[in-house]
Recover the amino acids of this structure.
DNA sequence: CTCCATTTCAAACGACCGTTTGAACTATGC
DNA sequence: GCATAGTTCAAACGGTCGTTTGAAATGGAG
């Protein structure tokens, strides 16, 4: 069989995903990325133009399948009548956790990358991410509003932001602290580390309860 | 009245809070801090020893009143019998939001600083923060477990981590995106920007519902 | 005033940063 | 074969990074 070897461009994107996800944008140097990708320093500016353009390309590539799947689910739900809050929450959470975690090692890397960038300390980086996930946001907000007519638009937006934030934190694995360090419940490891599906179920249940009964009028 | 002028050490801590909260640890240089604090570059290493030690000192100073208030509330609740989940959640959230937001401009700066550092991209920084908020963590977990006997320890820990994460995100104002940019609900600004008390109420209600009915057995 | 510990200062250290350059290499079409 | 477009390369660019140095300023105690 012929092995379609990864191009330099692809290797740069893969390593960028991993390193940016581990150390953040500011905390990761182009030299660290290019060395790990077995590429020359100048390759970044040749293929992408700048460090930030590399990040933008990596975000776009990582988010594309998630956005596609979310759109597909939303289309499907709305075609079938009035979706419940749980269906909508599931359609948002699961593509973020499963589609990306359910692929062995690389999936976890992509998830951590997305989760970290979404709440990077730099406003510039956060907006860069927001622009990528923006298109479907208003659709979800409108659908949630219809599914929760008793909640005010502000309350729905509040719930949506909480959902978005919690998803990002779980994606980035920031809520599953290091085993050896001083963290939460180091006596018993949380449920979710082995099975991303179980984490998705737990998170959906948590959010459904909060949306159904935790939004102030 | 005599004006006890701020010492260089205090000015450095104040500016560090602000800049680290805005740009993150890696994204903020000591030169930017010392210039804004009208101090010499060498002052950081003289008063603290290193950049990381400056951060550690800032975290400790910022967290001290929050930890004290949380301990006080927990003592009071446990002295009065078996606290409800809502009382426990309130005792955790409110010190984080009010005690720190309800102080004009500087309170918001401190809140953003804490919220950002708690989920900094660098694991090293996150652990530095975790060590500071660790002491009361096990007390809260145990109290929550007693208040929610039907939930498994894993589920309680899961809920606690979600609470901690959501609090940090709201503290850092990462969930109240920039007004002009492409973000959630730029048609109507969320409720919470003007009144931190209202945000606390919304967040507590959200979490109480999630804890009461959203934790899987 | 002298002494001494504390604090501030300008200047420099080596290291690393993102980016650019221009030549060398590679592969494909003619 | 040669020409050509695409890609990779070592090397260097000017800047900024955290940290260190040693001297100058400061200010209370004797």
């Amino acid at each position: 069989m012929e092995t379609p070897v990864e191009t330099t461009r692809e290797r740069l994107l893969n390593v960028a995903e991993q390193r940016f996800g581990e150390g953040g944008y500011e905390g990761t140097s182009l030299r660290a990325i290019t060395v790990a990708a077995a590429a020359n320093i100048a390759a970044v500016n040749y293929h992408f133009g700048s460090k930030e353009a590399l990040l933008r390309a990596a975000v776009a590539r990582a988010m594309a399948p998630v956005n596609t799947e979310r759109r597909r689910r939303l289309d499907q739900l709305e075609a079938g009548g009035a979706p419940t809050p749980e269906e909508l929450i599931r359609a948002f959470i699961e593509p973020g956790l499963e589609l990306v975690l359910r692929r062995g090692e690389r999936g976890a890397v992509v998830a951590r990358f997305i989760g970290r960038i979404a709440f990077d300390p730099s406003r510039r980086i956060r907006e860069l991410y927001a622009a990528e996930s923006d298109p479907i946001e208003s659709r979800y907000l409108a659908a949630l509003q219809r599914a929760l007519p008793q909640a005010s638009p502000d309350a729905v937006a509040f719930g949506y932001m909480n959902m978005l934030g919690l998803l990002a934190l779980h994606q980035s694995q920031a809520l599953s602290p290091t085993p050896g360090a001083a963290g939460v419940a180091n006596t018993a490891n949380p449920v979710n580390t082995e099975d991303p599906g179980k984490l998705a179920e737990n998170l959906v249940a948590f959010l459904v309860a909060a949306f159904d009964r935790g939004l102030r009028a």
